[in-house]
């Protein structure tokens, strides 16, 4: 336990520059982060998770053709004024609740697809010298309480860098960053002793993968600045975290919730089904239909 309480996490970074080629033709014009799960864009789930955790500033690392994301998190004046005038207060409040305040969202372009590490590095000037949350929005985490809110609890106990992890079938570990752990700190928290990005299945140190939610200290930016390309020829965040592990604490946290990889068609479809079944306004009509389809 740190003697002084760790610095507050006020900002969250969302890398959203990916081309979304796996979802063509849907993503020819529409950013993949704007594809909807039930009735909400994928990116909004991650932003709402950050809002729930008390995040105050939202940094989007975008690219060309991602303007819809910027518009989505802006005030839609005509729409909101019309909803208000027509007395549609529930819809009005819903839009308002997930829209950052004026000046509380920043957009920066990655320019070149050089990897996740490079995307995060592009946020350095906006984040500045303070800890920040990082969400990979493709990984939609659904649960009673948001993953970031749970992670902030861990962070307030231990400080340092916190990485959300979960167990996957052994044969899938080569698709992810994988952690090696030691030292049980209680509350599903362990000290991280090693990490490897996209290991061979037979070389993976565990079946615990990096789930796309991080709380990181700003010293990561200096590591990213000189990070050489790693797995897949890309500048990897995991490699920069390994470099920082020599100087700072890294803790893993096994969160409560279910992850749906919305960067993959099957994961995306599963997210739609699971979240629709969790909606009291949709489930009664949807479940019988789904049962019928499944029995075919
Ligand atoms: C990235 C990270 C990886 C993590 C994964 C989660 O990989 O580099 O460590 O496990 O996200 O989705 P990517 O999916 O960008 O290849």
Q: Number of domains in the coordinates?
A: 1
CATH architecture descriptor text: Alpha-Beta Complex
Tally the helices.
11
Ligands bound to this protein structure: 1-O-phosphono-alpha-D-glucopyranose
Total number of strands? 13
Distance between the termini: 55 Å
State mean pLDDT (0 to 100 scale).
95
Query: Going by CATH, what is the homologous superfamily?
Result: Spore Coat Polysaccharide Biosynthesis Protein SpsA, Chain A
Note the run of SSEs as H and E: EEEHEHHHEHHEEHEEEEHHEEHH
Task: Extract low-pLDDT stretches.
Answer: none
Shape: globular
Radius of gyration: 19 Å
State the CATH topology. Answer: Spore Coat Polysaccharide Biosynthesis Protein SpsA, Chain A
Write down the CATH class.
Answer: Alpha Beta
Report the sheet with the most strands, covering strand number, pairing sense and barrel closure: 9 strands, mixed
Strand content range: 15-25%
Decide which structural class fits the backbone: alpha/beta
Strand order of the largest sheet: 5-4-1-6-11-8-12-10-9
Helix content: 25-40%
Keywords:
binds 1-O-phosphono-alpha-D-glucopyranose; alpha/beta; 11 helices; Spore Coat Polysaccharide Biosynthesis Protein SpsA, Chain A; single chain; nine-stranded mixed beta sheet; 13 strands; 24% strand; 296 residues
Per-chain topology:
Layout: E1 11-15, E2 36-37, E3 40-41, H1 42-52, E4 57-62, H2 67-72, H3 77-85, H4 89-97, E5 105-109, H5 116-121, H6 124-127, E6 132-135, E7 139-142, H7 147-158, E8 161-167, E9 177-186, E10 189-197, E11 208-216, H8 220-225, H9 237-245, E12 250-254, E13 258-261, H10 265-277, H11 283-295
Parallel strand pairs: 1-4, 1-6, 4-5, 8-12
Antiparallel strand pairs: 2-3, 6-11, 7-13, 8-11, 9-10, 10-12
The protein binds 1-O-phosphono-alpha-D-glucopyranose.
1-O-phosphono-alpha-D-glucopyranose binds near residues 177, 209 and 238.
